[in-house]
Amino acid sequence: MNTKQIKAGAVFSYLLILTNTFYGLFFVPFLISRLGQGEYGVYKIIASLIGSVTILDLGIGGTILRYIAKFNAEKDEKQLSNFSAMGFIEATGLSLIMLAVGAVIYFSLDRFYGQSLTAEEFAKAKQLFLLFLIVLALSTYEKVVFGIIAGCEHYAFANLLKLLRIVLKIAISVVLLLRISDSAILLYVEIGLLVAMMIAQLAYIRGKIGIRIRFHYWDKTLFGQSFKYTILTFIQSVAVQFNSNLDNMVIGSALGAVEVAVYSVGLQLYSMFEQFALAFSDLMLPTVSKQIAQGADNRQLEDTVIKVGRFEFMALGGALGGFIVIGKEFINLWLGKDYLFAWKVALILMVPTMIPLIQNVCLSVLRAKNKMGFRTVAVSVMAVFNLLITVIGVKRYGSIAACIGTATGLVLANIIAMNIYYVKVMKLHILRVFGGIFARTLPCCAVATLLLALLHSFVPAGNWMIWIAKVICFVVIYGLLLLVYGLNANEKQILFGRLSRAKRK
User: Fold this and answer.
1) CA-to-CA separations, 25 to 44, 146, 207, 248, 331, in angstroms, rounded
2) Taken in order 309, 311, 314, 317, is the CA torsion positive or negative?
3) Which of 5, 150, 125 shows the shortest CA–CA distance to 68?
4) Where are the domains of the chain?
5) For residue 482, what is the DSSP state?
6) What span, in angstroms and rounded, lies between the C-alpha atoms of 420 and 252?
7) Closest residue by Cα to residue 301 from 428, 148, 115
8) CB of 467 closer than 8 Å to CB of 333
9) Which pLDDT tens digits describe the chain residue by residue (505 residues)?
10) In terms of C-beta distances under 8 Å and separation of at least 24 residues, what long-range contacts does 215-222 make, across chains too?
11) What are the percentages of helix, strand and coil residues in the chain, rounded to 5?
């Protein structure tokens, strides 16, 4: 395990989260103010629609990462070189397919949104769709490059570039949008940054990692193995993208762009919450792959899930508890009363997502063992439930039906079905896992949330200063509870040992 790279990657991952949080808190209101609800809603509709085309990349990034991690662990330089080149060949083919499918959708846009959007909004939608297609094609290559770097456990550089990309995107976009109020600017900036970052990544792969991306021969056996993994990943991606983008697409078609603008704020908040867990657990696939290659038993894998899951719950539990109590107040201060519905959307999605997020390393175990079949079936069923509830319910009950549909699918697939699979098939002791994760951390989170609720009842909603004061009180109380009671001996050693080393330096 490359501990230094994992730690550095984790640091940059959480810096990335903070940057994305800044994006959501400050850049989104800026966008809405410059573009207006209508154009911002159109932008989110097309972003969701293009997400349905994204599935055609067949999860190539995850496949590249898995096999590069495997070959890197085996020190197989020839396979590293050849498989990397095969990845670029596959990316070219996939990009052409996505462009072709995108062209078909482009000429069918009027069927979906010709009635719900104004003439001006529809013209903008067509322009944005073409630009999104270019971004999509470039992103396919970028996923290959990122997979190579992450598979070789160079997390710090990979996440540093991600961080730099979003910082530059925000900075350049703000400057340009102050002059021209046009959502297309966001995509022009994205295209330029994608090209620049890929050049930097390729230079790093050759110069620092030392991989010469050269096509030696078409490895039919390896392609067959990776293709099987890719297909399962693809089907999952279909379901995940379907769940992620269905809501905005159906709401946009049935209720219009303004309704999407409000709903998408709730999705934005949910996405921030989700990234807290994914930022670290995504770093664990190469580590888990090595553990399995070295003959680690289920007990050792469970210990890894618990170790990561405890830190994830400390962060997510606190975030959820705080959002339940003062999240509505935050949205009111942030965007105004017109967006308060976003609190319900985010909360309905956050609650059922908590369990799968804190045990997300279990998915890394499945990927490393190439046992993603059941997961694929589960998320596909989840997508079906979401579709039925959303399509039937939106016209009658409004956008609340969309998030209920998504939440129902999450409970059935990610909580019930997957945990049965972990116990019955993978032979993981899930109760031991949850017991290890929640031991001492759950009481700390519950007490801190109750105390925040008590404080909130005595100090009603006011201004930003009052809200920030509540957040500080909550963080201090929660942190003290964790230090005094929640953290185990190993976690305290990690924390205080790191602080001691920093002081000595």
Assistant:
1) 17, 27, 38, 20, 10
2) negative
3) 150
4) 31-218, 440-505
5) I
6) 36
7) 428
8) yes
9) 445 555 555 566 667 667 767 766 777 788 888 888 778 888 888 887 777 666 666 567 777 777 777 777 777 778 778 878 888 888 888 888 888 888 888 888 887 776 767 788 888 888 888 998 888 888 888 888 888 887 777 777 877 887 888 889 888 988 998 888 888 898 999 999 999 988 888 888 888 878 888 777 777 776 776 666 666 666 666 666 666 666 666 777 666 666 777 787 888 888 878 876 666 555 565 566 667 666 677 888 888 888 888 888 998 999 999 999 999 999 988 888 888 888 998 999 899 889 988 888 887 777 767 677 788 788 777 777 777 887 787 777 777 888 888 888 888 888 898 899 988 888 889 899 999 999 999 999 999 999 999 999 988 777 889 999 999 999 999 999 999 998 888 878 766 665 445 445 4
10) 215/82, 215/85, 215/86, 215/89, 216/78, 216/81, 216/82, 216/85, 217/82, 218/86, 219/79, 219/82, 219/83, 219/86, 222/67, 222/79, 222/83, 222/86
11) 85, 0, 15
At residue 154, what are phi and psi to the nearest 5 degrees?
-95, 65
Name residues whose C-beta falls within 8 Å of residue 485's C-beta, 6 or more positions apart in sequence: 440, 443, 444
What is the token pair recorded at 6? 């994992």
Q: Are 353 and 320 in contact (CB under 8 A)?
A: no
Chain CA centroid to CA 104, Å: 28
Helices (H), 359-488: 361-368, 373-397, 400-410, 418-424, 430-438, 441-458, 464-481
**Chain mean position to CA 270:** 10
* SS3 track for 248-266: HHHHHHHHCHHHHHHHHHH
Minimal CA–CA distance to 320: which of 468, 446, 488, 435? 446
- Apex 456 CA angle, 453 and 461, nearest 5: 145
What tokens appear for 225 in the block?
Answer: 């193995």
List, in order, residues 6 or more apart from 437 with CB less than 8 Å away: 306, 309, 310, 313, 358, 359
Q: Check: CB of residue 479 under 8 Å from CB of residue 497.
A: no
The four Cα atoms 386, 389, 392, 398 give a dihedral, to 10 degrees, of -100
- The amino acid at residue 286 is P
Q: Which two tokens stand for residue 313?
A: 């719950």
Determine the Cα–Cα distance for residues 470 and 493; give it in Å rounded to an integer.
30
* Residues 374, 421 contacting (CB under 8 angstroms): yes
